[in-house]
Write a structure and sequence with these properties.
6-stranded parallel beta sheet; 3-stranded parallel beta sheet; 13 strands
């Protein structure tokens, strides 16, 4: 991903993940972001059964509505001095990890950027029953 931002996102019982990205190519901290967000995992409400093609190949449909495997899967960043930022985000009822680095490490289609972790910055995070 490049210069993309989400402000005021509300996502409830999203499926496999709330957001997943492979790599960024930004040299700033203010162009790739998630701000003022509310993410709710499992609600326990009796919703209708739904299915989605949520895997990399989009060839298998899986049932949605159960706790997510992960919340936000963060990208690698190719440029020094920049990356993704998350501010004023609230996570509610996450049974599993709601933040995960290196979304595609060790998976097919992973970017070839080198070894090591890449920085993601956080501020104003809230976790409720998560």
């Amino acid at each position: 991903i490049g210069q993309i931002g989400f402000d005021g996102v509300v996502a409830v019982q999203n499926g496999a993940h709330v957001f997943e990205s492979r790599a960024t190519d930004v040299s700033s901290w203010d162009v790739c972001y998630i701000k003022n967000a509310l993410f709710v995992d499992y609600t326990g409400l009796p919703l209708a059964t739904s299915f989605a093609a949520a895997e990399d190949g989009f060839d298998e449909f899986v049932e949605m509505g159960k706790p997510m495997e992960g919340g936000i899967l963060f990208p690698w960043n190719e440029q020094a001095g920049g990356g993704m930022t998350v501010s004023n985000a609230t996570f509610v009822n996450f049974k599993h990890a709601c933040l995960c680095g290196c979304a595609h490490c060790g998976r097919g289609g992973s970017p070839v950027i080198g070894d090591g972790a890449f920085e993601t910055r956080f501020e104003g995070m809230r976790f409720v029953n998560s």
